[in-house]
């Protein structure tokens, strides 16, 4: 929306834009190529957690 001043010199009046309003973020995302990267994996973290439990378990 844009703000203009009324013909009577009063306060600002609101004018509605013509057509559909598209957010800047939506417009930017529409121009990006598809993301072809593989999904992230947590396998390395799972291995670290198993190793930590083993070390803690043997110390008692």
Describe this entry's structure for a reader.
By secondary structure, the protein is α+β, with helices and mostly antiparallel strands. It contains two helices and two strands; from the N terminus they run ββαα. The protein has a two-stranded antiparallel sheet with strand order 1-2. The termini are far apart. The model has no long low-confidence stretch (mean pLDDT 75).
**Which structural class do the helices and strands define?**
alpha+beta
**Terminal Cα separation, in Å?**
68 Å
Task: Write the element-wise H/E pattern from the N-terminal end onward.
Answer: EEHH
Biggest sheet, in brief? 2 strands, antiparallel
Number of helices: 2
Q: What's the overall average pLDDT, rounded?
A: 75
Task: Put the structure in a nutshell.
The protein has helices at residues 24-31, 43-58; strands spanning 2-5, 12-15. It has 60 residues and is α+β, with helices and mostly antiparallel strands.
Topology, element by element:
Blueprint: E1 2-5, E2 12-15, H1 24-31, H2 43-58
Antiparallel strand pairs: 1-2
List keywords for this structure.
alpha+beta; 2 strands
